[in-house]
Design brief:
The chain is built from 4 helices and 13 strands. By secondary structure, the chain is mainly beta.
Length: 219
């Protein structure tokens, strides 16, 4: 299958090797228009402590289970987020992904803070977002850890090719975004990774894989 690559940036926007040794940047992107320029950056300590009981309520009075049920009714595309570099190669299945801005092109993805992949993504400073087609549903389970495969074994499933920034791209993905990690924020139970999109690779526009009501759907 052929993939038509659209180069979304000039060579000066490529991630040079010098980025690999940079420490993580702090704070939100200055270009995010929704941030109040005079406000203090949000820190993990600013977030309410999560309820300890399974059905407990937050300070807002919204129960944890009620919130989960509400979120389950919102359909989301399914993605595999990957990274590769001196810290190693890894990837995970995600639905908590969205665009932030088109100037500059910026996205965010959420990764559980308890995941051992956190330091790998932060150290590599780059990540790829692969939006799955319906036929790649088995890969969603593989990278969600449902098959029990170790990380190296997971990448033996699917046709993976490196993006310019080094992150693995899935050949059958509807679209793959090559992202440079610009900042991250620890919020409640998750790390929010912000990425500057340096390249876009378009795949075949096959039916999309969605996740809603705790099950996969096709659109």
């Amino acid at each position: 299958m052929s993939i038509h690559a659209f180069r979304a940036s000039s060579a000066r926007h490529r991630r040079p090797d010098s980025y690999r040794g940079l420490p993580p940047l702090r704070g939100f992107l200055n270009s995010v228009e929704t941030m109040n320029a005079t406000a203090e950056p949000m820190r993990s300590t600013d977030w309410p402590e999560k309820a300890t009981a399974a059905g407990g309520t937050s300070p807002t009075g919204v129960g944890r289970q009620a919130f989960r049920e509400a979120m389950s009714r919102i359909a989301s595309s399914v993605h595999i987020v990957t990274t590769d570099g001196f810290a190693g190669r890894c990837g995970f299945t995600a639905t908590a992904f969205t665009s932030v801005s088109d100037d500059p092109p910026t996205v965010l993805v959420c990764l559980n803070r308890s995941s051992p992949q956190n330091p790998v993504f932060k150290a590599n400073g780059t990540f790829g977002v692969n939006t799955l087609a319906a036929a790649d549903r088995p890969l969603a389970d593989v990278f969600a850890g449902r098959t029990g495969l170790h990380m190296a074994e997971r990448f033996r499933h699917g046709d993976w090719r490196p993006l310019a920034g080094g992150a693995p791209a899935l050949a059958s993905a509807r679209v793959a975004l090559d992202c440079r990690l610009t900042s991250y924020v620890e919020a409640a139970t998750h790390t929010i990774l912000f990425g500057l999109v340096t390249d876009v690779v378009f795949g075949d526009p096959n039916p999309s894989l969605l996740y809603v009501c705790r099950d996969y759907r096709t659109l």
